[in-house]
Amino acid sequence: MGACERACAMSQFSKVTHSRHQWKGKANSAAMNNRYLRKQLARVKAERDKAKRALKRPKCACASWKAKCRPWPGGPRSMAFGSPCGSF
Hints:
Elements: H1 3-8, H2 12-68
């Protein structure tokens, strides 16, 4: 083995350490990306759930309003004559 071959070839130890450093860099960048995506997904889900609750809220209010209302004494036809009570 000549002097050039010895100088050009990396030792086994340096190959392993270089490979390990590359692997650590890839793992760190992947972990950062995964953390970002997890947080982003949580934000999107929270926003979606908030929107769903907002859409359901008026329906509940309307249902409670309908439950509080009483039917007219004369029935719905009494409204045709202009009086909700049907007495006029």
